[in-house]
């Protein structure tokens, strides 16, 4: 607009021309503002705006030269002004739907590395049919669920799908020759942008993204606003007294109207919603909203969430779902090797090559599907390699928790309800202090409380994989520990079982050690992790079926007693805990004696099998008083 603006500023015309120029100047200002709004909202109307500018230039030049303005030019300018009015009303509606952080999360995800080449599951194979995303796009099913632990890469994958769904769906029966529109919303609970965790923010974002692509349907979606700007109302500079309702109920109605208009035009719509668990309200409300969206015509919806109970109850039985931890190991390995293998190619330092190769293997094997940890650790290792750190310092970088993760997990822990904080502190502190990874029956006994932990008189042999105890514990851990403590898939964990048929609980140390300050504030004053671990092991032994295999010298029962001995020894060395240690030991002896009599008709024995633990001796087990000497408890043959 600079040429026209300069012309107006340099004009010394008479009163009539001055009045006319004031009118034209106002139009110039409004067109400039409209152009700026289009740029902010990424709307393309450059040809139309340029046409308006040219007609206005012609009109202004004629005025400035004192010439009569041709009637045709006046009519063209008025027509273009009317066209500008339509654009301005569209921009006004979109401008009210838009909010400051509407694209914040997408821009944030754009900065993350996306291992697109290794998303092999997207293509689908015979044994991965349930996770075949492209097959779902071509099917009649409306909903697809992506789940995963915190930091497993769900949001990065969702951003990839949003960017590539057009190419992936082009040949499907669902799209065929129709126009495909895509809109995405990424819930974000952390940060200062309140709308990124609300239903209003979700609906405003979806509406804005769709209408920005199809401005031609705005008059059908907002007919009441369109009617407000009739021929008698001011045009380019708008009018007071109108606004777009931003109430969630009205926004949903408008989204439904959008889908009807698109269906009438034979378009199809892909909606992607990430982070359902980060919605500020009740999960049930979000599930209900997703149900409404899947009922809209020509719409498919892809959602992602953590493995929270409400979403598992609703979506776990669906065929069209995908679990990040089960399939992202190749993605993680490709990412790690792609970033770090260049440090293994030194022609002059073979030791450094060996260290780098070892660190790569350790990162891959330790990831457990946790992509965020991998990304941050790899960035730290790259810095170490660049700085020529020693192997000791490189290993320390790997073992230390990145600062970003501290904030991430601290936020996760803040979402634990007050009702569950005591239990959460107990479970997580036990996981941190345990001499070895406790199997899930031990944690089940902890969550059962005194009913299991303090009983020694009655033997209750439990077939652990029956009656849903494992599923019950998984629900309890999800509610109390927010993904910091989980039970792996049964199929993946059988080879690592501490007790036959009883998969262990996954909890890498780096996920818990920084939580001490918060957890210590939650735990009761009399809490002692060693006491609780001894009770949990004792309860697991009391309730576990025992056969000759499990009770052999190198069997699973032997491993449980190792853990008991380790923590019992720590208690026994504290004078203030001597009485507690003695009670724990005698309770264990009572349990072992009873189980041995039931199974083998004789009492357990004590064997000094080269342990460093100082347990009560043979006399104590046989009923005598003072124990002495290193011992170890096992069931008799």
Keywords:
five-stranded parallel β-sheet, two-stranded antiparallel sheet, 29 helices, Rossmann fold, 4 domains, mainly alpha, 637 residues
Strand order of the largest sheet: 2-3-4-1-5
Low-pLDDT parts are: 14-19, 125-130, 231-240, 490-501, 601-637
Number of helices: 29
Average the pLDDT over all residues and give the rounded result. Answer: 76
Q: Specify the structural class.
A: mainly alpha
Ends: how far apart?
A: 97 Å
Strand proportion, as a percent range, falls in 5-15%
Principal-axes shape call: elongated
Q: Major beta sheet, specifics? A: 5 strands, parallel
Radius of gyration: 34 Å
State the helicity in percent bands.
40-55%
Topology, number of strands: 7
Q: How many separate domains?
A: 4
Q: Care to describe what's here?
A:
By secondary structure, the protein is mostly helical. It has four domains: 2-97, no CATH class; 104-326, Rossmann fold (3-Layer(aba) Sandwich), CATH 3.40.50; 329-400, no CATH class; 411-634, no CATH class. The chain is 55% helix and 5% strand. The protein is built from 29 helices and seven strands. The chain has helices spanning 2-9, 15-40, 46-64, 71-97, 104-110, 133-137, 154-169, 199-213, 218-221, 223-228, 248-264, 283-294, 309-315, 324-327, 329-340, 350-366, 371-386, 391-399, 403-414, 421-433, 440-448, 450-453, 469-481, 490-493, 516-522, 529-543, 556-572, 578-600, 618-621; strands at 143-147, 180-186, 268-274, 299-305, 321-323, 605-607, 632-634. The strands form two sheets. A five-stranded parallel sheet has the order 2-3-4-1-5, sandwiched between helices. Helix 12 (283-294) links the parallel strand 3 and strand 4. Helix 15 (329-340) runs antiparallel to helix 16 (350-366). The protein starts with a helix and ends with a strand. The relative contact order is 0.07. The model is unreliable at 14-19, 125-130, 231-240, 490-501 and 601-637 (pLDDT under 50).
